[in-house]
Structures are given as C-alpha cells and as structure tokens.
Hints:
mainly beta; Immunoglobulin-like; globular; Lxx211020-like; Copper chaperone PCu(A)C
Amino acid sequence: xxxxxxxxxxxxxxxxxxxxxxxxxxxxxxxxxxxxxxxxxxxxxxxxxxxxxxxxxxxxxxxxxxxxxxxxxxxxxxxxxxxxxxxxxxxxxxxxxxxxxxxxxxxxxxxxxxxxxxxxxxxxxxxxxxxxxxxxxxxxxxxxxxxxxxxxxxxxxxxxx
Length: 161
C-alpha cells in the first residue's frame, strides 16, 4: 500500500484533530443534530440558577428537542426571554417563558443565547467552577440523546462565543 502524499497526511491529521477540539460540533447519533459552542454561565449568587447556551445545527429532517439535562444540576428547563410591550404605553419589559420543546427545522441553525432561548439549570453542584466542563444531555422526541460538554464561565465573564 502506498502512503498518501505528505500534504494529504497533514490534512487528514488536522481534520481528525479538529474533531477533538472542545468547540467542535458534536453529532447526535439518532437525531443527526449537531451541537457546537456550548457554555454555561454560573450564577453570581450561590444557590441561584445557572444558564446554558449552545448552537444547534439541524438534520436533514425536522427534529424536536424535548429537554437539555445535566448531571451537574438538580433539574433544568428550556426557556425563552421575550420583550413584551405594555399596551398602556409603559416601558417594555423582559419576561421569561418556559418552553415544552424546541422544533429544529430541516437544516436550520438554532442559537440558544443570552436574552433569547436558553436552558435554566437549577440546583447546580456547588463544586462547579469556571473552566470546568459541564455535561449536557440533549433529549429528542425521536432518536438517541446527544451528550456534549459545555465550558463553565463566571457570572461576570464575557460570553466565550
């Protein structure tokens, strides 16, 4: 067997290495959804909820996300922050609504971001510190769950992505 040219070997090595990077996309085995840029902002006050953010890249068919859970938290909820207009002329207010699911259309990119869709993590383990890797388990209506790792950051730190 003849070895591939040096440039091809370097490309293959780089491609294989990129798949192992923390920010690399991870694919769900059953749902075929990919996830990237996952991070968790820890609470400023111990005992308060943390928030998880990530980007989902849709499959070649519609997929429904039912939950994002973590063994590092007692419970979790999908949420969306909305800007509501006061019908009486008062200032708009921000509200947070719980979501039962998130539909991911075919090939769509869905961003969970501050002041948008996000995952609330309640009862976060007190030992969790900035820089730790937080496991997140994405559960879908059909197919196998997808487990990813999110980088924990302190409450006042800028978003990493």
